[in-house]
Design goal:
Elements (H helix, E strand, L loop, with lengths): L2 E10 L7 H13 L3 E5 L2 E6 L2 H16 L5 E10 L7 H11 L4
Helix pairs in contact: 1-2
Length: 103
């Protein structure tokens, strides 16, 4: 059962208002695990196969950010879990585009 998630990872107390270098490191973790993902201006959408996979990724993100001396991390997570059909990130976007007459 694929799980769609949007993550918003916020390292707190980094000494800078810019967080993009930390987010780039988060994306590197996703790439290393070959997780389908889309970065957007306010977060990152991912597709995982289980809650266990999601937990492992989140743990690795936290460990990685700690290695950069981040002392506080806020992570917001939105989940989309469907049982009537297999969801995908592309499918959600395609559905909206079809309704807008873009396809």
């Amino acid at each position: 059962m694929p799980i769609l998630a949007e993550l918003r990872v916020v390292p707190v107390g980094t000494g800078s208002t810019s967080l993009s270098s930390y987010i780039a490191k988060v994306v590197e973790v996703l790439k290393k695990h070959r997780v389908k993902h889309y970065v957007n201006p306010m977060g990152t959408c991912i597709e995982v196969q289980s809650f266990e996979e999601l937990a492992l990724l989140l743990n690795e993100v936290v460990v990685m950010l700690r290695s950069f001396n981040v002392n506080r991390i806020v992570i917001d997570i939105a989940l989309d879990i469907r049982f009537d059909k297999e969801p995908s990130l592309e499918g959600k976007v395609r559905s909206v585009e079809e309704k807008l007459g873009m396809q």
